[in-house]
Amino acid sequence: MITETDTKPWIKYHTEEDGSPLIQGSDAWKAAPTYNRLTYIRELDERGIENRRLSLWQCECGETTKAPRGRVVSGATKSCGCMARESKPSLAHGMKYTKEYNTWAAIKARCHNPKNKDFPKYGARGVVVCTEWRNSFESFWKCMGSAPTSKHQIDRINTLGNYEPGNCRWATAQEQCRNTVSACDWYIKGIHFETAKEAGVYFRVTEQTIHRWVKGYFDARRGTQSPPKASCMAVYRYPER
Hints:
The chain is of the alpha+beta class. The chain contains 9 helices and 12 strands. The strands form 4 sheets. Strands 1-2-3-4-5 form a 5-stranded antiparallel β-sheet. It has a 3-stranded antiparallel β-sheet with strand order 9-8-12, with helices on one face. A two-stranded antiparallel sheet has the order 6-7. Helix 8 crosses helix 9. It starts with a helix and ends in a 5-residue tail after the last strand.
């Protein structure tokens, strides 16, 4: 003979010491079943969503809750809500809505979520977040600390490397522009500059002029081609990019 416990193994029955069913009042179920974490106590003269009659249940965590008997029996409601709370990651650090936490979430998404709009520039190129940081915001924050200002963003020192200790820093937009995959070291008339803009400021010319000195340019009006200046060159910082 198949019993209810055979078809619904998650049901446990409370019994007296002699094995007889535990009776909890005239309106209690004779077997006093427990479904998942909830033990039936009694019917209530209340109705909930969809006008369904509510029952009172005792949760294993010690709290009581109200729920329709059908939802509990079917397994749709398994606890007073404690199961859902336990399944959520711990945010004891209290920094969920901070710049640092959002930065941590963003680098994980761009490196490990193929649906992220920035994945082609990061994850698809082999850039990853180290396991230590990926699994723990606290580890990330311990290494990086707080951003100096709201304008600072996380930056990889070696743009071909990963997000990991020793290869990340908080940097301004200007500092990040100097450290892109296509970044060059500029050597103009024997002087080294990190950007063409810096060289332009030094020589009091436009950034476009620096590019012309390095690459040469075609004068459409005169129909002539000017060659690069021998004393000017740009070298890719990451030639293996």
